[in-house]
Specification:
Elements lengths: L2 H9 L6 H23 L3 H27 L5 H19 L9 H22 L4 H24 L4 H21 L10 H27 L5 H22 L2 H11 L2 H14 L1 H20 L7 H26 L4 H12 L1 H4 L4 H22 L1 H8 L1 H4 L1
Length: about 375
């Protein structure tokens, strides 16, 4: 990378703007809608459809994360286009519960609008930069084709609709891999890592919302205990992400240059943060069900969601850190395996006990890492003290 290119990337660093956070709030509402979608249909078929919707929404959000990393969009006409995108995303979020029913076409049209406005904004940002313009031209066909297929999916029924969703998302997600992430892509590492970290933080807030919704208005001793255990698990998931992992990955992204940085951003953040969010959403589903029925054993899907959601989060985090650092976090791997092994027990014991077991596993992983690697943790988090 030339000195001029390095200066360009350093100049691209800027704080996350209120406009970006405004956009993220609408996306969080969409995540909440996905959790509600799953709660209304807690079947395997419902899980598949919910995860497809989440994957589509994530693709749209991450596209804007790349865009705002390249440029501060909170100015002039670009701000107005961003506000229009927020409106389109809100309509898509409102249509999530009916995305495979009566609002399927509405969801598809709103989603296509979100993706189209993203390309318009990208074109405005890259109009004076031939390299960026070339990147947009490579990216646009798969983004538009994938989004357009969701509109088509809205007018067909049954398995054909599912098939079109799968094809649309495959085109959308694998397009950048097939056609390459060549020159023209810009990543401001500090801003980019902060933006994805914030969306994980906000997604964890969805689990807190699930506690409030699941608890309802009657706070029995079992409900209070379940709420506290739920907060304990969410706190552990937060710790595993933000105590040292986010710092390690952010520094690795900042140290990378050129195409290496772009590919690391694509793989570790764009792709591997999606299963983290999916794990949070599934855990929220299991937590919400647990709070509503603390004395009963869980049905199959909520039990798998409770244990498997936390396991998916851990496994995605392991993959994220391995891609970023090349190091395999073995204790987190063991924790994920233990959570998956809890699924049969979660089907038999009361849901409160199942939640207690999940919280114990997550807390033990956190405690081991904090105690076993306390010296390395201090050096990483407080380099000035370790010097």
């Amino acid at each position: 990378m030339s000195d001029a290119e390095r200066e360009l990337e350093q100049d691209a660093e800027h704080q996350v703007t209120p406009l970006e956070l405004f956009f993220d709030l609408v996306f969080v509402f969409a995540i909440t809608q996905v959790t509600s979608f799953l709660a209304r249909d807690p079947s395997w078929h419902g899980v598949v459809r919910g995860m497809l919707v989440l994957a589509a929404l994530w693709s749209a959000w991450s596209g804007y994360a790349w865009l705002t990393s390249a440029m501060d969009v909170d100015e002039g006409a670009v701000r107005l286009a961003m506000l229009a995108s927020i409106g389109a995303m809100l309509i898509a979020a409102l249509a999530v519960p009916g995305s495979f029913g009566g609002e399927a076409v509405l969801f598809g049209v709103a989603y296509l609008t979100v993706r189209f406005l993203h390309l318009v904004l990208s074109a405005i940002v890259g109009r004076d930069d031939p390299a960026r313009w070339s990147a947009i031209v490579r990216y646009a066909p798969t983004a538009l084709v994938g989004a357009s297929l969701l509109v088509v999916a809205g007018v067909v029924d049954g398995d054909a609709r599912i098939a079109l969703w799968v094809v649309a998302l495959a085109i959308d997600y694998f397009g950048p891999v097939v056609f390459g992430m060549g020159g023209g892509w810009r990543v401001a590492p500090e801003h980019f890592a902060e933006r994805f970290g914030l969306i994980i933080l906000i997604a964890l807030g969805e689990s807190i919302i699930a506690i409030g919704v699941g608890a309802g208005f009657h706070l029995s001793a079992g409900v209070v205990a379940a709420a506290l255990l739920g907060v304990l698990v969410v706190s552990a998931l937060w710790w595993l992400c933000f105590d040292v992992a986010a710092i390690l990955a952010r520094r690795r992204l900042a140290d990378a240059t050129g195409l290496e940085r772009v590919r690391l951003a694509r793989d570790a953040y764009n792709y591997l943060h999606l299963p983290m969010v999916a794990g949070i959403v599934l855990f929220a589903l299991g937590l919400k069900t647990t709070l509503a029925h603390v004395g009963d054993s869980l049905e199959t899907v909520p039990a798998v969601a409770l244990c498997g959601g936390a396991a998916l989060y851990l496994l995605a985090h392991i993959a994220f850190l391995f891609r970023a650092t090349g190091y395999l976090f073995r204790r987190r791997t063991l924790g994920a395996v233990a959570l998956l092994a809890l699924i049969p027990a979660a089907l038999e014991v009361p849901s409160l006990a199942a939640l207690g077991l999940v919280s114990a596993v997550c807390s033990l992983v956190v405690a081991y890492e904090a105690i076993r690697h306390r010296a390395a943790r201090v050096r990483l988090r407080h380099p000035d003290l370790a010097a």
